[in-house]
Amino acid sequence: MRTFRFFITICLLVIVVTPAAILILAIENEPRIVRQVSLSPEYIARAKQIIDTYRAQSNPEIATINILSKDIDIAANYLADRFGQGSAKVSMTDGSALVALSIPLPKQFIHGYLNLQVTFAQTTWLPYPQSVQIGNLSLPNFVTNLLISLFVDWLQSNPEFSAGVATIKQIKIYHHEVNVTYHWNPVFSQKKNGIPILGKETRERLFRINSLLVNKSETNSINVASLSEILQPLIHHAATQSINGDAIAENRAAILVTTFHVLGFPLKLLVPEAANWPTPTRQIITLDGRDDFAKHFMVSAAITAYADTKLSDAIGLYKEIEDLRGESGFSFNDIAANRAGTQFGKKAVANQASARQLQQLIVADLKDTDLMPPWLDLPEHMTKSEFQRRFGDINEPIYQQMAAEIENRVSALRILRSD
């Protein structure tokens, strides 16, 4: 009997102590990776080049895209911050990659950080996790293999993801870059409904708001309209749907539909089934009398609403630096429109209270001057030589002073003020 009791006691201790020991080993008090997110205009330029290359090679032929290792590192750190409020670092050697990730755990449950390190080894197809370490706990190979098996099962149960992965023929890892060889499946382009990117509820919201925009554009069939005239009824509709619903999701849908309308793009580019939806009358949308301001504002708002301010600001600054090489030049009033749109998108989705507050402010009244700060005195259309003579580069104090002035003007807008 004593032996039996001793055995039971040992079993209970193992059951209780083992999970606790795992938690102690896996969870740490401090993050091992602490990095700021840095999305420079140069990074955006390289990302655009990759996208352009991919689009050019989207055909049945086998093609390869080369991605710099430093860009993968930047992207991983951005995604860790965006989705986990953490940091990441990717280091590569020929044939392998080490991914380090530090994510804070929810403070309402437990204080600490999940520090994850995964070593990926190159194979004849996708890189394979060679070792996994969580904090001071190294996962046994059988556990790693089990997790991979579960992930593969999940992937196969989601055709929209598995179909995309199936196009990849091999990923080669080098110290300075990663080569992705793929075979574009023409079936993707031939599918009538495409591969759904957005969920059913989101598509239904887009359909509702698009239908409202169609009705408004048919009722007021003028060729030129102000952004405030277009945006107010759509946000009003979002507000009515938010009474017992999700204000953030409604705002996102209104911003997205407005952005596509301002740019003159059909929604079918994002939602294939929208090819069968009614189409709003084509209009030139202006903000404070300028159609370029409306585009800057809404694109920045959409990127922020669906991503974040860091990405929106980086893309906006990249666009202005690119303009230095063209005829339009660098314009601080475009930066003002970008920042106003970014802050608008941020307030629209920050939380449910902020989303509803913005809705009520817009429903009460909306003018273009509520969206665009004063801009007439801001330098615009500067050539590269003029910009360098007056402001040096974007790291110079005089440029930073101008950026701060724009930020103050944006913050003072009625619908964006925090008071």
**Structure summary, number of beta strands:** 11
> Tell me, what's the shape?
globular
Helix amount: 40-55%
Number of domains: 2
**Which class best fits the helix and strand makeup?**
alpha+beta
Straight-line N-to-C gap: 73 Å
Which percent range describes the beta-strand content? 5-15%
Average pLDDT works out at 81
What oligomerization state is this entry in?
Answer: single chain
Stretches where pLDDT falls below 50 for ≥5 residues? 6-18, 189-195
Compute the number of helices: 16
Taking Cα atoms only, what radius of gyration do you get, to the nearest Å?
26 Å
Q: Major sheet, described briefly?
A: 6 strands, antiparallel
Note down, in words, how this protein is organized.
The chain has 419 residues and is α+β, with helices and mostly antiparallel strands. It has 2 domains: 28-188, no CATH class; 200-411, no CATH class. The chain has 16 helices and 11 strands. Helix 8 (227-242) packs antiparallel against helix 9 (247-263). The longest helix is centred in the first third of the chain and has 25 residues, at 2-26. Residues 6-18 and 189-195 have low confidence and may be disordered.
